[in-house]
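Subject line: Sequence and fold of a protein, written as structure tokens
Body of memo: The sequence and its backbone structure tokens, given next.
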Amino acid sequence: MTQNIYDNPEFFEGYSRLGRSIEGLDGAAEWPALKALLPELRGLRVVDLGCGFGWFCRWARQQSAAAVLGIDLSQKMLARARATTTDAAITYLKADIASVELPRAAFDLAYSSLALHYVEDLGELLAKVHGALIPGGHLIFSVEHPIFTAPTQPGWSVGVSGKKTWPVDSYLCEGPRRTDWLAKGVIKQHRTMATYVNLLLRLGFTPWHIEEWGPTDDQIAARPALEDERQRPMFLLVSARR
């Protein structure tokens, strides 16, 4: 079972104070790039894997998606999502995305934001997603970039050039990595770029776009602290077709 860190009171309190938790999608620096990968949502049936507070679920309906299923393991996250949703076309399900059963050919779009790096057996989940999508359906997801998940003790160091660098530890050794982020003992699954791409290919997906996300000049001008995110990509954004 996937670690349910989001119901940890310390973690949930810290996560709730993040910009993306307060401002929603607009508070996520990678959202403009992720949104650009999405198809026209009018009339589509959507599943959001790791829906959290339900920001994307509600946005999808605003774009005229026909129906949206949001799945999350966290009771605290879903309570907030349900409290801020009044749309009968949005359904929230408490379940572990790693083991949930998805109906076959039931969705036009499977979406996931920063959730799949918690899943130990990603191949099994993506196989279910492949079966749950109609032919030609879209899979759009973001994860923490493998360079970002590789360190066992995340933190800046200073390289020989005098610039800040991000230490990478045992990049090719895939598996769980423990980090202290918002709470102690958060477990994320490190896997290489090749593993992400080869999983998609092996399961019959056609990769459409792969982006190692970094902030734009305009974003850095508005939020100078984002300059550090150009030292290494923080997120991996993927678009694929069934």
Notes: The chain has one domain: 5-241. Residues 5-241 form a domain with the Rossmann fold fold (CATH 3.40.50.150). The chain has a mean pLDDT of 89. The chain is about 25% helix and 25% strand.
